[in-house]
Design a protein that fits this description.
Blueprint lengths: L13 E4 L2 H6 L2 E6 L10 H15 L4 E6 L4 H13 L2 E6 L7 H8 L3 E4 L1 H6 L8 H6 L3 E4 L5 H7 L1 H8 L12 E6 L3 H10 L5 E5 L7 H11 L7 E5 L10 H14 L8 H13 L8 E6 L3 H9 L2
Parallel strand pairs: 2-10, 3-4, 3-6, 4-5, 7-8, 7-10, 8-9
Antiparallel strand pairs: 1-2
Helix pairs in contact: 2-7, 3-4, 7-9, 8-9, 9-10
The structure holds pyridoxal-5'-phosphate (PLP).
Length: 308
Amino acid sequence: MLLPPSDWLSQAPLQPLQLDWLATAGIEVALLRLDQIDPLISGNKWFKLVEHLKAADRAGAEGIISLGGAHSNHLHALAAAGKRLGFQTVGLLRGHAQETPTVQDLQAFGMQLHWLGYGGYRARNEPGFWAPWHAQYPQLYAVPEGGGGLTGALGCAAIKQQAQAQLHTIGWSDYHAWWLACGTGTTLAGLVLAEAGAHPVYGALAVPDDHGVAPQVESILQAAGQGNEGYELIDASRGGFAKVDPLLLAFIEQTEQASGVPLEPLYTGKALLALKQQVEAGRFAAGTRLIFIHTGGLQGRRGFIASP
Ligand SMILES: *Cc1c(COP(=O)(O)O)cnc(C)c1O
């Protein structure tokens, strides 16, 4: 049994975010803290795993095998879930063995690691890649890199329910739109599916255009039988994935001091800075209410800040 009881995870708190540039523009933002769903498991990666865990359960698997890098939030959430729920996890890692804080956690959570090198990792989408791993671990169910695809997206519908159930606690009866960071666009696609046009979803791209987020979102929506609408992608990558610059770092520091909310520079920091720029450009009318999803990722920032 890979799945927790349905009431096992606490709700991500929904909190008003008070910042001077929001007040000036008359925009209200509520923060959905996916970074606080569990002591070990953090962020959107848990939601992306849920339907994969159900599929693994249906297949009679005893655990999960998946892939990622040495700072991977996905492998971290998977290993944490395996530890919390008591199922076996195996991680196939990009590159050569190294000790990052993430890797140390993976090991502490009991995940078995295999380092594939760079060439070996690049082969992950080739036919035949999984055959030797299935032979070695016949009891495990394979989840693609990052937990993506329609299966990953469907688990993210619960994010909408979590926010909706708490609107009254912050005095809102409704909201105008969502704002969140995108890496593959899977989480965004899940929200677009859950909304079915009721509220638009703005995706701040943490990766440059050539990463193919737009076609990936479109293919998930298509696989679910929905049209390619209900969302908009905004460039927030600031020159490339994981590229940081002084303005971004200063913004994160100021925001953390003003709000007490921890951010990291790859996703949540860039997404909030992109929102600030859009707000200052007059994108949203005064009185607009937005839900900003804190997608987590704080575990990955340890290694990042130690080695800029
Ligand atoms: C993975 C990740 C994202 C991007 O999620 P996608 O579903 O790939 O778009 C955003 N924020 C954080 C912190 C992440 O770890």
